[in-house]
Write a structure and sequence with these properties.
The chain is globular and about 60 Å long. The chain is an all-alpha fold. The chain has 14 helices and no strands. The protein has a single domain, classed as Up-down Bundle (Na+/H+ antiporter like fold), CATH 1.20.1530.20. Helix content is 75%, strand content 0%. Does not show transport activity towards bile acids or steroid sulfates. Belongs to the bile acid:sodium symporter (BASS) (TC 2.A.28) family.
Length: 314
Amino acid sequence: MRLLERVRKEWFMVGIVVAIGAAKLEPSVGVNGGPLKPEITVSYIAVATIFFNSGLSLKTEELTSALVHLKLHLFIQVFTLAFFPTTIWLFLQLLSVTSINEWLLKGLQTVGCMPPPVSSAVILTKAVGGNEAAAIFNSAFGSFLGIVVTPVLLLLFLGSSSSVPFTSIFSQLFMTVVVPLVIGQIVRRYIKDWLERKKPPFGVVSSSVLLMIIYTTFCDTFSNPNIDLDKFSLILILFIIVSIQLSFMLLTFVFSTRNNSGFTPADTVAIIFCSTHKSLTLGVRAACGSQKKPLDLLELELQSCKPPDVGTGH
């Protein structure tokens, strides 16, 4: 009985293992163009569902107060789009003298230049009682910033110029993030009493959608026939990514919990997830403009190495 209770309590972690296992057994189901059509169901419907769900569950006053928390937004965006990529670049200067696969190192720098994740940071923040409204704003705002900032960072750190499909990325973000969030807030105004009385499982819905995103991500990874990397490089880069992730999470925790920081514990949770997780789904489209084949390979490899974004980078 204790085991069963533990499984119920940790159902999301169990779900991640099951999702990865299912993707390994039959990856063709969740690849682009496969039966699940993730290019539509994940890229549009899943993300829109998450933000509609957030708009429905969040009190309007919480969302409004989060919008004017400028210090928090500045901390997250500067850490994500300035400190993170610069620190990675300095670290990779040391790793460049090792025998680690060159493209894995370039891929690590590419990940470092990406904006915050669109969906997973919101879900993880909500799951542990953090400032969901702040996570929503910074995920959306950071993704819009990434349309412009990410190509500049890639040019600066990798020397790769790229053409960015600005209109298509902007419209995708607007239609899958902003519009569902606004619709959710509008619907909430009419069924507010019912929501407060029934208390629907919003967290379970968002977490279930994230499991679908994780599943399709690993389907793409396991179905890729072009991955041909030595095990030493792959294991070492896996260790490096986990170490960087944990180090940056600890760093943001320390900075955001200082006595004079002005951040609440809920703010700290949002800062940790939004500042240290990266989105590949939107950002890599800019990166692929100049180095299509290597970065496609690295996108699949590095998505499988991250914790569920891990920020599944979606």
